[in-house]
Structures are given as structure tokens and as C-alpha cells.
Amino acid sequence: MPRPLYSPLVDRRSGFGCLLEIVETLVLTLVIFFVIQNFIAQPYQVQQNSMERTLEPTQYVLVDKLTPRWDDYSRGDIVVFNGVDSFTPEVRIAEPSGPIAQTFTWLGRTFGFAPPDERDFVKRVIGVGGDRVTCCDARGRITVNGVALDEASYLYPGDVPSTTPFDIVVPEGKLWVMGDHRSQSSDSRAHLGDPGGGFVPTDRVIGRAFAVIWPIGHAQVLAVPDTFDNPALQKASS
Fold first, then answer.
1. How many domains does the chain have?
2. Residues 178, 155: Cα–Cα separation, whole Å
3. Containing domain of residue 16, as a range?
4. Which of 186, 146, 195, 194 is nearest to 162 (CA)?
5. Closest by alpha carbon to 175, among 199, 194, 191, 196?
6. Which of 135, 229, 119 is nearest to 176 (CA)?
7. What's the mean pLDDT when you consider all of the chain?
8. In whole angstroms, what is the distance from residue 208 CA to residue 77 CA?
9. Mean pLDDT of 162-185
10. Residue 118 pLDDT > 70, yes or no?
């Protein structure tokens, strides 16, 4: 009796078939990871010391890129944004020179395992579109829509709210941002005279940092400070 004519393209039980399955699984995993990183959440390595006491250099935060698509950024949020054409880099990161090193750096930044671009910043939102933000009242506090902020819970010890006076109204679609380590932060105050007026366009924001994920011992959820839940502040801006 003649043997059946059966010639599978790849015998999954063979060594090559097993290797093919491993490659397929790896590629699928990378694709899923890439989609998550670009559209849902992405790790970001803090490089600056401008957000101390809340965030320290070399820590990793997880950045929410999904909910801001339908939920506007709010006062008190910590955001990661691209400062091209608006902010001067606070740190200098040596860029790789060779094509192989550049490829690995691109992959590392894409998947959050390499230092970010030096034009990426992490700051706290103090004012959103329509807010009037001033410095400072008679007690040296920053006010938003006439309501003083109590920043003691997150301001770096020894820092004052600001040594730079300002009185601005945030345009719609923009944010006024400041670092928690005010004396070491080149934030919106430092760019008042620039073409962008120190404001960050919301379409330049990469996402909202909502948790510290590394080192494990520093892991925490980044909650919005209570002062931004002040009903008087919300009423003033309505």
C-alpha cells in the first residue's frame, strides 16, 4: 500500500520547528510590549533632581498614556513632557556614536530601559488652561485663582515656593509646571520671556506619572496632594 503523500512545511516537533515557535512567541511579545509602551503605559527614568523630594534621579516611574486621551490633566498631576522648542535641557546625556549603539539606545528608550531624551522633562502641574497663577501672596505662597496652595507635603525641605515673582494666566491647551525642588528646577518660571511664555502645550505631554516602580524599596503610588482638592480652588476656577 503506497504511503500517504504528506509534506508539512514545518514539523513543529523538529528542532527547527521549536526554534520557529520561540521566535514567533518572542516577536509577538515584543509587539504587545511595544503597543503597551506607546499607547497605554511606559516606564520613564528620572534624570533630573528638580522633582526631589517626590522623585529622585535614577528612579523609574510608570507613565499613564491612555487615560489622558479622555481625562484632562489636572492641577497636582506629575507629568512627563517633551520640551523641544520650549524648555532648555536640565541634564546632558551623551548620545551614542556608532550605528549599533544608536540602535540599542533607540530600543532602550522605546521600551523604557535607557535614559530618556534630554529634552524630556518631569514636573508637577500647578495651573491648567484658564487658571491665574501668581507668586506670591503676603505669606510667600503661590496662589491659583486667588487660592493659596499649601505645598508643605511635597516641596523640597528648605525651599520656598518661588524666588521669582510672576502673575500669569494659563492659555487654554497649555499647562504651567514647576518642580518640587524649586531651587533646582528650570521650569515654567525660567521660560517666562521665551516665545512659549513658559507654558507646556498639552499635546507635548507624554503622559501622567502615577507610580514609582523602581527601585522596589521606593515603590509607591503618586497621589495628587490634598491642597489641589481644596473645594475653594475648584470653585474659583469654575
1. 2
2. 10
3. 10-39
4. 186
5. 199
6. 135
7. 82
8. 7
9. 96
10. no
**Strands of the 132-135 sheet, one edge to the other:** 147-148, 143-144, 132-135, 166-169
* Residue 24 within any structural domain of the chain: yes
Q: What is the mean pLDDT of residues 36-58?
A: 87
Looking at residue 154, which CATH number applies to its domain? 2.10.109.10
Q: Would 5 be classed as within a structural domain?
A: no
All three cell numbers of 216? 522596589
Question: Per-residue pLDDT for 80 more than 90?
Answer: yes
Residue 50 CB neighbours (<10 A): 25
Give per-residue pLDDT as tens, 191-234.
998 878 899 999 999 999 999 999 999 999 999 999 999 888 87
pLDDT above 70 covers a percentage of the chain that reads 73
Cell numbers for 61: 516611574
- Does residue 1 fall inside a structural domain? no
Identify whether the C-beta of residue 131 lies closer than 8 Å to the C-beta of residue 170. yes
| pTM, entire model | 0.78
Active-site annotation, residues: 50, 123
Residue 221 Rama label (left phi>0; alpha psi -120 to 50; beta) = beta
